[in-house]
């Protein structure tokens, strides 16, 4: 596995492999099985895989966890090598944003709301760094996890609108054995918060079960998700409210959103007759977690 640290080295590697399909896997490090699944998918779809490890300062808002974001480079490189990664680009912030840097990408419409409501500059930073990486490591494909669903939509829209010659591939969420979506921020949770974090996937599962049972009212489904998150309860097969074994009494500490949206535009919907997505963002202390689920149209 090759390592390179400068933009010049990245461009040279990409140029040397211009006749091969190459899959790019951008990461911020602190890798887990979700990231490594992207590498394995890239290796299935492409001849080569190049990962990047860069904690991008421009996508963190003031007061967020940039300073304490976990750095686990040795373990990250070992995991990437085991997953079959061919090369890793490890730039510094000064190389990506040199002195005098002042050009940023205006995010597309799909960036509005949801994540941007609490992190208004987040997607400007995401879109800018991803565009730079696409130029510094020109590849045929780029692989992103579906867990950050709005981010995936933003990158797809940017690539389409700017005619970028890269196929953006969304990959399924990888979950822990109890359903929690894998995230680098899960390590911030204490034991009580970790148990309650299951409520995100349970809220989506509750909505799915209700849809299967014929509940197609968007507001009712959103209220069901919110109830599961806030109270830490579920509705059983008989329609009664019940606590969840193994989860402490009480729900998440706060809910940023729990909504059903059009899966492409992320606009609110009134019915379920188009592909739609359930998005959740909730907090446990200072730790903020995301989850989502996509459904096909319900007739």
Automatic annotation (TrEMBL):
Q: Which residues bind beta-alanine?
A: 59
Q: Name one GO biological process term.
A: pantothenate biosynthetic process
Catalytic reactions on record: (R)-pantoate + beta-alanine + ATP = (R)-pantothenate + AMP + diphosphate + H(+)
Alphabetized Gene3D superfamilies for the sequence? HUPs, Pantoate-beta-alanine ligase, C-terminal domain
Give the EC number. Answer: 6.3.2.1
Question: Active-site residues?
Answer: 35 (proton donor)
The record lists (R)-pantoate as bound by: 59, 151
List the pathway annotation.
Cofactor biosynthesis; (R)-pantothenate biosynthesis; (R)-pantothenate from (R)-pantoate and beta-alanine: step 1/1
Q: Where in the cell is it found?
A: Cytoplasm
- Job of this protein: Catalyzes the condensation of pantoate with beta-alanine in an ATP-dependent reaction via a pantoyl-adenylate intermediate.
Q: How does it assemble?
A: Homodimer.
Q: What else is known?
A: The reaction proceeds by a bi uni uni bi ping pong mechanism.
Return the similarity comment: Belongs to the pantothenate synthetase family.
Q: What is this protein called?
A: Pantothenate synthetase
Natural source organism = Stieleria bergensis
- By which gene is this protein encoded? panC
